[in-house]
Amino acid sequence: MSRYTGPVYKVARRLNYSITETGKELKKRPFAPGQHGMRKAKLSEYALQLREKQKVRFNYGLTEKQLKNTFIKAKKIKGIMGENFLILLETRLDNLVYRIGFAESKKQARQLVSHRHILVDGKKLNIPSYQVEVGQTISLSEKAAKFKITKESIESVLVRPNYLEFDKEKLTAKLTRLPKREEFLSDIKENLIVEFYNK
Questions:
Q1: In the prediction, which pLDDT does 26 show?
Q2: What is the pTM of this model?
């Protein structure tokens, strides 16, 4: 299945989950598409698992294949599988570019990476799924640093994650440690996603 490119608001309302993590989509119309105040049917166990998986898929803007491959990779890492799965997603290059504030959305962050405007340890990369390792530094190309949209995005960031060390003068960010589970997507029940893929 290909990456979803349709309206974010529609998906957010259907899942009753803010894909942008701002809550804006749900404020616009606080009910699922087509329901208009109708009583919601109780979801089956499978439906709950599927919905949780879809929340994560749309949040990170991935295809089904990318999501499943990340889960398979997480199974090979020691520790709690669900947490490992989410940490792998959180430390993708495109996601960290967004967390740093180099882009206003994850879609925009993915485009910056794809167009070779992002450097990791000084080397240009065009792989959005690149797994950033602890100690690596992410920076903008000289050209991207001058983009109006990039400058505005950087200035609009109020708080950055504690696992990123940002240098405003150099416009670089270092991944100082792996994210802790409680630091991101706290309302996601990853155990349901593990159950979904382990069927």
A1: 60
A2: 0.84
